[in-house]
Amino acid sequence: MDANLDSELRDDFLVEAGELVQRLGEQLIELEASPHDRELLNAVFRVFHTVKGGAGFLSIEPMVQLCHCAEELLNDARNARLVLGAAHMDALLEALDLLNVMMAALANGEPMSPPPPTLLQRLQPVVEHSPAAQPVPARAADPIEAEFEALLNTLYGQGGSPGVPAHASKEIGDDEFESLLDTLHGKGAAPGAAPSSSVAERTDISEDEFEALLDNLHGKGAAPGGVAVSSPAPAPEPAPVEAARSAKPSQAENTVRVDTARLDTLVNRAGELVLLRNRLLSLATRSENETLSTMAGDLDRVSDDLQTAVLGMRMQPVGRLFQRFPRIVRDLARQLGKDIELIQEGEDTDLDRSLVEALADPLIHLLRNAVDHGLEDPAGRERAGKPRKGKVKLSASQRGERIVISVSDDGRGMDPEVLRRKAVEKGVIDAAQAARLSEVECYELIFRPGFSTAATISDISGRGVGMDVVKTRVAELGGTLQVHSRLGHGSTLELTVPLTLAILRVLMVRVGDRLFALPLSNVSEVFELNPQHDHMLDGRRVAAHRGRALVLGDLGEWACIGGPGGRHVVVLHVGHMHLGCLVHEVIGREDVMVKPLGPLFEGVPGVAGATVTGDGRLALVLDLAALSQDGGRLLPSLKVSA
């Protein structure tokens, strides 16, 4: 097999196997809770079996050995020879971790070490005949498998070939494998179809299709370290071949893999079109030309539809992000001696793919906080009249143009008085400031650097850095945080982020003769400042607004613009903080494409980039997360504000 084909097959294997393994951790946690779930047990078994087959074809012996041992353990569970317990699941999860390491090494061209003998020993089944266990029936024949049988009969001949040994080499010819792939992806039946050149350009296949291909190529029930292949056979009957050609195409053929770089290019071009549309609409508004106005309106409609379609291509289900969390909660619960059920809702909510990985660390911190601080131990829950098993709920939903992800628990809740006392003890605020804090502001103290209510420091929590990291990261993403708690009943931390970061919706404001764009996702409201409500408190300028003191920052002072300050207040919600930004004029909302300013202005605090307005002027797009920090100079006193 030539090097180019070998590299392409390796990439195919990594993509297909990666998709199967991606959800395996969540499936294993579900299987631990429901060890007699036949469908789930079959699904987990098929993942290890399929990956083993692909690894065997590529002669990746360490991966074959690992998957075979996991497969044997699961097969004994399927045949009712044992019931999977916590020790079995620990070994399977460790095998999953090692499998991910092996796949990363294969992708990077690095050498792969054999699996540790201790892990393989732990994967050896200890047969326990249990009356509660029932044999798992074999799954029904898949139509795709029938199609593959016909294809293999065509390639090798039906019924056996004279002079060909029963055990053939585990490799098949390049032409044979290409023929299988072409037919699988719907290219064999169309005359003149171009061959596939890369993973990104070919049609996607499903898990069952991929498994059927490997099963038929390598044979089922392979021994460790090797893969068997069916023997060549004589020429087939015409009927199976015609049936294979006339088989109905799979629905999976409607999906196509696209390189993310191409997708980003398309999004950027759509953003450029948005800027041109804005300019044309501005010209049409000032013009009395009816034809121009009509064309501008048509372009507005078409560009909106195109923008929606392009942004939809960037979306991924948030379930891809949620898949990693059952394992984390399970390991923490075992480490802390707690009994916890993780409930997930809204996994099909779509989220910009750039946010999926960015939200991983903040959500891990929120879940660790709920498991460690929020939930009592089983004995404590019994004393409080609660079930021994605590519940942590992770949910996602879409509200308008924002995605809301919440982490809630039914634990002890937060005590505002304890939070006040701890904040004063740790020097986060002084006693006078603590006395003025409302209940909601007390909850927001958990996001302060160095704040922690843990009595002892462990490898899980107690250093006062976790929630501060969450606040910083969410603010960088243009998101907000809110805390709701009820003493004795539990807490909810709600994280809100924009639906997409590709095309930014901003509120355009004027300070002096300069234009600034404030991300609309952080804008709560706009009002005109009444001089009677303008006060100084603890050395900070505040406005009495909606029954609380709103800290004010003058955007003109930050931009070094002389003259009287603005009287319009834009209320911003950055991270967990609310603050007011003084400007001279609020112009209105626009959709913009943010452009970098280049290396000369790189690193300027508070500036995210620039954009072109509808009338052709330049406007700075502000980085509100950086502006609200000490170095941003807009609100240097926020360190002690709520």
UniProtKB/TrEMBL annotation:
CDD domains: HATPase_CheA-like, HPT. The keyword Transferase applies. Residues 2-106 form the HPt domain. Signal peptide: none annotated. Pfam families: CheW (PF01584), H-kinase_dim (PF02895), HATPase_c (PF02518), Hpt (PF01627). Residues 503-633 form the CheW-like domain. This is histidine kinase. It comes from Dyella lipolytica.
